[in-house]
Amino acid sequence: MTTYLVDGQRIYAREEGPDNAQVALLIHGWSSSWYALSCLLPVVSRRFACVAVDLPGYGNSPPSPKCVSMADYADLLAKLIRTITDRPVVLIGHSMGGMISIYLALRHPVLVERLVLICPTITGHLSTSINAFVSPFTFLERFSVANHLTAVIEPHILKLTDSLMRPVSFADRTDITEETYKRLRADARRPGQGRVRFDNFHAMRQGDLRGKLRYVESPSLVLWGAEDNTVPLRDAGVVADEWPNADLRIIPKAGHWPQFETPDLMIRYVASYLGLPVISSQLDNGNMPIPVVGQVARFLNHSDVGNGMNLAQRMRLASQCDLYTYEPGSTIAHAHESGSELYIVQEGSVEVWTDPISMSQQLLQAQRLATFLPGQITGELALLDGGRRSANLRAGSEGATVLSLKRERVVALCEDDPPLGTRLIWNVATALALRLRLINWQMEMDRQERENQQTRAEPAEINQSVSNNTPTMSTVSRPTPSL
Questions:
Q1: Do residues 244 and 388 share a domain?
Q2: What φ, ψ does residue 396 adopt, rounded to 5°?
Q3: pLDDT of residue 472
Q4: What's the Cα-to-Cα distance from 480 to each of 368, 473, 477, 483, rounded to whole Å?
Q5: Which residues are within 8 A (CB) of 287 and not within 5 positions of it... i.e. 6 or more apart?
C-alpha cells in the first residue's frame, strides 16, 4: 500500500500498472475499501497506472477530523490527482464512489477524461431494504458506546444479518464466490468506522445529483446490476432522463456488485470502453497508445463510420482500431489474399489498383481505379465476408496513415454493444451504397457521353457519304451540241 498526504489527510492506496501511464483513480463506495474494485485492477492496469484509494475513514485511511460531504471528498481527491499526475485521469467509481466521481467531474472537469460508474448513487436515497435494515444500526453507530456494543453483538447474530443483507446486495443467481463475499462483509463491518458510515449515509442524501447530470462534460459509462437492491434502479431512470450522453447499461444476474457477480461481462464492457482491445471476453493486444484513442475518437466524428455516434461510442470504437503508417507507394493489402480488415484513412490517401494477373490478357499493367481520402473507408467487403480481396491497396504519393478495424473486433462490439454495432454496420453499408451509387452514376454518364459522341458522328458520316457520291461541277459531263 502507498500512503499519500493531502492537506494533512493520510490516504492509503493500492497501486498497479506502468509508472508513466495515464492514471486511473478507483474510488470505492460506502462501508467498503479499495478491495471493492480490486477485480478490475488486473485488466485496467495493463495500460493505466491504477490508484485504488481507501477514502478517509475507510480501509486503512484514518477518518477526517470533520464531517465530510460528497463535494469535500471530490475536492480532496482532486488535490490527490494533482499530486500524482499532470494529466487528466480516468475515474472508476462504485456506489458512493460513483457519486463522488460525478462531483469531481462537475467541480474539476479539466482533471477528468472519462468516467466508469458502477451502480452509482445518484439521488442519495438508498433502497427501502437498506433504510429498513441498515439505517437504524447506522444511526446507533454515531455513538461510540453503541458502536462498540454492535461490534460485540454482531458475531453472535451473523447468520441473521447475512440473511437480511445478502439479498439486498446480490442477485438471486449471483456468481460471487464465498471468499469474496466474506471479504466484502469484513470491509462493511470493520470496527471503528461507525461514525464515518453515519456521516456518509446522510452526506449521500444531501448530495442529490438530480438536475446536475446534464452538466457533466466527460464521456461516461454507467453500469448497473438489474437486481440492485442497494442503490435502486430508479436512480438509473434519472440517468436515462437527465444524462442522455451517458452510456447506460443494465447487467442481468447482478445486484450491487456486478464487478464480482458477472466479472467476464464487466471486463468486456470496461476494457472496451477504456481502450483495451477485446475479442469476446478475452483481451487482445492493440498497438494504439491510450492518449491517441481520444484523438482518433475526435477524428472519427468526421469519418464514414462515425456518423451519428456520440463521443462515448466513438471512444469505444477508436479503442478497437489499430494504427498503421505507410510510406508512399507501399502496399497495404494484396489482391487474392483473404482479408477481414476495414481501413479508415486518417492521413494521406489510399489508392486501389487493379491486379494485371487477374485481368484480361490485354491489360499489361496495373491501373488505378480509385483514391480514398481522410475519413473514407475501403476494404469493407473483406470486413463483411472475409473473402479474398479483388484489388491491391497502396499508400498514395504522400503516404498514408490508416486505422485498421478487424472483423472479430466488430463482432465483439456488436455482441457487447448492440446500438454501437448497429450504427457501425449501418454507416459502413451507407458508405458502400453511396459508392455504388456514384459508380452507377459515372457509368451512366459514360454511356450518355458515348451516345452523344455517336450521335455527333452520324451526321458527319452521312455528309461524308453524300459528298463522295454527288458529282461536282468539274466532273459533270455535258452533251456536245450538234452542228
A1: no
A2: -70, -175
A3: 44
A4: 70, 16, 9, 9
A5: 322, 323
Structural domain of 407: 290-436
The low-confidence residues of the chain, meaning pLDDT below 70, are 128-167, 277-291, 356-364, 458-483
Q: Which amino acid is at 439?
A: I
Residues 165 and 295 occupy one common structural domain: no
Q: Are 112 and 104 in contact (CB under 8 A)?
A: yes
Q: What is the dihedral of CA 224, 226, 228, 229, to 10 degrees?
A: 150
Provide the CATH number for the domain around residue 23: 3.40.50.1820
Q: 248 near 255, Cβ under 8 Å?
A: no
Tell me: the pLDDT tens digits for 17-37? 998 889 999 999 998 999 999
Q: Which residues contact 113 (CB under 8 A, 6 or more apart)?
A: 22, 88, 89, 90, 218, 294
Cα-based distances in Å from 100 to 45, 79, 109, 398:
22, 14, 13, 49
Q: Give the Cα separation of 195 and 143 in Å (integer).
A: 7
Domain of residue 393, CATH code: 2.60.120.10
* Angle, alpha carbons 343-348-430 (nearest 5°): 40
Angle at 112 between CA 111 and CA 115, to 5 degrees: 160
Q: Are residues 153 and 31 in the same domain?
A: yes
The answer as to whether 477 is a domain residue is: no
In 3D space, the residue among 368, 370, 372, 433 whose CA is nearest the CA of residue 402 turns out to be 372
Contacts of 199 (CB under 8 A, 6+ apart): 57, 67, 68, 142
pTM here? 0.70
Are residues 253 and 170 in contact, defined by beta-carbon separation less than 8 angstroms?
A: no
